[in-house]
Amino acid sequence: MTTYAFFQHYWWFLISLLGGLLTFLLFIQGGQSMLFSLSKTEDEKRLLVNVLGRKWEYTFTTLVTFGGAFFASFPLFYSTSFGGAYWVWVIILFAFTIQAFSYEFQSKPGNVYGKTTYRSLLFINGLLGTFLLGVAVATFFTGSDFTVGKDNITNIASPVISRWGSGWHGLEALLCPRNLFLGLAIFFLARTQATLFFINRLKHEVLENRSHKYLLYNAIPFVVFFLAFLISIFLSEGFAVQDNGAVYMEKYKYLHNLIEMPVVGILFLLGVLTVLYGIIASILKQSFKKGIWFSGVGTVVTVTMLLLIAGYNNTSFYPSSSDLQSSLTIFNASSSEFTLKAMSWASILVPIVAGYIFIAWRALEKKKTDMDDINSDSHAY
Amino acid sequence: MELLDVSLINWSRGQFALTAMYHWIFVPLTLGVGVVMAIMETLYYKTGKEEWKKATKFWMTLFGVNFACGVATGIILEFQFGTNWSNYSWFVGDIFGAPLAIEGMLAFFLEATFISIMFFGWKKVSKGFHLASTWLVMLGATFSALWILVANAWMQHPIGMEFNPDTARNEMVSFWSILLSPIALNKFFHTVLSGWVLGALFVVGVSSWFILKKRELDFALRSIKIGAIFGFISTILIIATGDGSAYHVAQKQPMKLAAMEGLYEGKAGANIVAMGLLNPDKQYDNEEETFIVKMDVPVPKLLSLLGYRDGDAFVPGIKDIIHGYTLSDGTEVSSFAEKQVSGKKAIQALNDYREAKATGNDSLAVAHKAVLDEHFANFGYGYLEKPADLIPNVALVFYSFHIMVALGMLFLVIFMAVWFFHWKKKLENVRWLLWGSLFSIPLGYLATQLGWVVAEVGRQPWAIQDVLPVQAAVSSISTGSVQLTFFLFLALFTALLIAEIRIMVKQIQKGPGNE
User: B105–A68: do the CB atoms touch at under 8 Å?
Assistant: First the structure.
């Protein structure tokens, strides 16, 4: 049971779960991307900023933990992707950095650059953060231009192990339509979920009604781009791994994975249906306010399963399109058995973390938020 | 084959230093003020006095502004290990990554979860729940520091690992020896205490400003008392942990100690330099005088005593470390040239081992592995070219260390004086002290920054002491890309700092009574 392979699978599952949670929590970014369109008056903007501002740290912390966990469990991915696709990751980081202070600073006297600047930074975070994360994750299925040579470490003049082929350092991913499909799907999913969140949290008739409209406008492109991505990867070749570790191209690999791992396949379909239920029920019935929870749970499950499809069943989770044998798998890119085991002990505490997050979330969200709440809160943004 | 150029290494180092230094402008204040506001809220909880609540909320607002900046700069730091130090990430990621992951899973979520309650929960949760949240935020911030400092301490003194030639990386073999390493524990306490000292200076300085302006006197006197006591205790403790740091540096990083003291030629019964002006023409291989002017601490043999717990112990200088030396206990330490040869043998043995494995010649692989094991302790020296590569920037380390220590002593005097005059109920009349306290705030920032300069510049050229120099740790990207991101981050962080300072000043001017 507790073999090296078990821990490699366990940690890929945790990474996938963190990826799923992060995708759900990107509703914050989705909401930020609508700050200048969904809200028309200053009061409306302020209300949106404040309901989002009470949650932004969850997304941010999940992203940081996602990065830390990836580093710890699959360090070869960390060194290859971050050091290689430099520009994509730097722009993503930049997009999240500008979020971190924009809530806290925007309403404080003496903030130098004015409220609109900080809100514009939140908008940029919402736009680039979601889209580029989607593009980066899409390369897990479409491949990137890199080589890995562990022997390089003995070359004193140039000991770098992972090297990127393209001088664009990751930005070349934007030229692949399949990557764009997922990037746009994540962007519109985040906006869709934001509207569901606003419907659930706000006590403001105008914004609620407008959120219902925006839900439809964003859900349709989300479904279109997500389906386009799914169809394109399920019908294309995938990066399969032989028992000896050799990587080869296999037709319909990701579709095979869906079928050959029935639990993953069923959960994936259930996840997609739950997301759609949350969206459709909210569109059809104005009084239905719990769409965010269906959509949220569905998103976590769907994305987790999608990432399992990328890494399980003898599949390369970070393939090299220029040198197949440099592709990363959960076996050749992982930390040692000892490290994975040690971190697994620490991961036992995760349910406790989830427990106190639940308690704290509930404590602040006993009732819907309205302008009175904001006006009476001395720390409101 | 593309060769790594020096400018890429220097710009990558510069970018990391830039991010780390900006990050460390914001973090120590959250560590220190976090404790102060938690103490004040505890007093509010116990006494029910609104004055304590008012004071808590005032310091909490300033905490929040800083916290946001710390978070913003922190995420760049974490991911820079991958973006700019990709070889490092693979070569030691098996060990270094684990603390980062645990930091995220356990400490960051603690902070992120309860900070919402702390800021937005005053009217939504009970007093007890709110107090617990404030303490948990403080604990979360401190635990965050624990894990990253464990990782940093491991880079200064790598233990609990073995090199695996099959994976071409170092792998963890003892989690507890990494976590409980005396160097890690000492570093943790020393660094957190530096945050506490800065937080205390900030509270004392800001409170002094209110007293000088004759505003919010009740609030200011309450705050300044807590700040002075907290600062005094923290400074005493930091002196103790500073002694621990110096001892560990002497044992594990003698080159850093030599640079801290400007010690080119080692000696038994060595003194500590109290202050001095270094001769800029001094090199390890010339006979110039080291100092233009110098004054020792008037306690003889103090460096030997502190570094080796023996007043007559031999403390190696830079020349000794280059040419080899013998410690007082008879231990012989190899010269740079010998270590360099040994390191090159280790690298060659790794190459031979991997070739033998690739061709299926296991017995030959075993033989090369034995050579690798024998020489692995000097692995990193194989990447260095000349003795000078081993020497950090002596002037920068020397002056940083001495100014930091002098400032620490000054802070101790300030805390004692403020506490004394507060006790005598004469503080409002001692205006020179109040002004001094106010102007000591930037000095507190300077001292904490200098501490990191000593720690990080002093260990150059090593990313991992003796195992991986910075030139073997860097990513393969163009220098132009790193230059561009350097200036991008410089502009962003500077703009952020300007806004942060202005907001803080405005909030302070607004005072606690005008929410």
Answer: yes
For chain B, domain boundaries: 6-253+392-510, 259-333, 336-383
Instruction: Report the relative pairing of strands B314-315 and B267-268 from DSSP bridges.
Output: antiparallel
For residue B351, the chain A residues in CB contact (below 8 A) are 151, 154
Cα separation, A32 vs A190, whole angstroms: 10
What torsion, rounded to 10 degrees, do the Cα atoms B273, B275, B280, B283 define?
0
Distance from CA of A353 to the nearest CA of B (A): 7
Query: What does the DSSP 8-state code read for residue B270?
Result: P
Exposed, middle or buried: residue A185 (CB in 10 Å: 0-12, 13-18, 19+)? Answer: buried
| A81 interaction partners in chain B (CB closer than 8 Å) | 82
| Residue B296, C-beta contacts closer than 8 angstroms, at least 6 positions apart | B271, B272, B273, B274
Confidence of residue B495 (pLDDT cuts 50, 70, 90): very high
Cβ-defined contact of B90 to A364 (cutoff 8 Å) = no
Interface of B with A in 40-79 (CB under 8 A): 57, 61, 64-65, 67-69, 71-76, 78-79
B5 phi, psi to nearest 5 deg: -105, 155
Chain B, residues 422-441, CB within 8 A of chain A, namely none
Query: Quick one: angle between helices A253-260 and A262-284, nearest 10?
Result: 90
Residues 6+ apart with CB under 8 A from B414: B201, B204, B231, B433, B436, B437, B440
On chain B, the residues whose CB falls within 8 A of the CB of A55 are: 116
C-beta atoms of B492 and A94 within 8 A: yes
For B82, the closest of A69, A82, A111 (CB atoms) is: A82
Residue B172 pairs in a beta bridge with B161
Average of per-residue pLDDT across B224-246: 96
What residue type is assigned to position A169 of the chain?
H
What are the boundaries of each domain within chain A?
A: 4-375
Contact B474/A111, CB-based, under 8 Å?
Answer: no
pLDDT per residue, tens digit, chain A (381 aa), is 679 999 999 999 999 999 999 999 999 999 999 999 999 999 999 999 999 998 999 999 999 999 999 999 999 999 999 999 999 999 999 999 999 999 999 999 999 999 999 999 999 999 999 999 999 999 999 999 999 999 999 999 889 999 999 999 999 999 999 999 999 999 999 999 999 999 999 999 999 999 999 999 999 999 999 999 999 999 999 999 999 999 999 999 999 999 999 999 999 999 999 999 999 999 999 999 999 999 999 999 999 999 999 999 999 999 999 999 999 999 999 999 999 999 999 888 888 888 888 888 888 887 888 888 888 887 788
Q: Please give, rounded to a whole number of angstroms, the shortest distance from the CA of B290 to a CA of chain A.
A: 34
**CA-based radius of gyration for chain B:** 25
Q: Is the peptide bond before B158 cis (omega within 30 degrees of 0)?
A: no
Q: Which of the residues B9, B69, B85, B109 would you substitute to probe the A interface, choosing the one with the greatest number of A C-beta atoms within 10 Å? A: B109
